[in-house]
Please model this.
Amino acid sequence: MRYRSLLLAFLFIVTACIPKTPDPNMQINQAVAATLAAMPVPTSYAIPTPYPSPTPFDLRGLFCEYQFCIGHPTDMAFLDLSAQQNTSTPSAYTQGIVVFYSNNTFIRMVWQVSPGTADPQFLLDFILDDGIDTPVGSLDVKLVRDMSVIYTSITSSATPVLPFGGAAAWTCGERVFAWKAYTPDEASAPALFENSLARFVCNR
Model:
C-alpha cells in the first residue's frame, strides 16, 4: 500500500511536468491583441480654443451735458464723479469727470480746458491708473473729423470680471477729452469707442 501511494505521487509529478500543447485559439487571440496594441493611435483633433465673443451693445444712448455729447450703451447709469468726490467743484464746461456703468461695462470720461494743445497724450496718461491699467500693443493715432485722436487697448486688474478695455484721448476746440472703458473681452472696447466717438460733438 505504501509503495502504491508513492507510485501514484511519482506519476502525478511526472504528468504535471510534461509540456502541454498550447491552445491554437488562445495563441491567435494573443497575437491579435498584441498587433492591435502595437498599431499607432490616430491623433485626436485639437479642441478649439473658445474665444469670448464681443459683447453686443445698444449704443442708442446719447449723453449731452457740459456742452458736448457722446454716445454710450442705453443700459448704462450716469454718475458725475466730480460732484461725488467734491461737492464744491462739480463737473463743468472747463473740467470734469463722469462715469457710466452697467453689469458688463464701465466707462470713465474726463475733460479739461487746454488752449493751444493739439497733443492729447497728457490726458491719456492721466486717465490710465498706474498699477491697474496696462497699455497693450501700439498706440493708434488718427485724425477724426479734424480732431487728433489717440487710442490704446489695455488690460486691467481693477475687477476680475472686466479684465480688458481701451483708453483714448482727443482734442476738440479748446478742450482735451479722455475716455476709458473696462470690458469683459478684448473685442468690445475698440468697437465701443469707435461708435461712441462717431456720435461725439462739442461746442467750440
In short: The domain at 63-202 is CATH 3.40.1000 (Protein Transport Mog1p; Chain A).
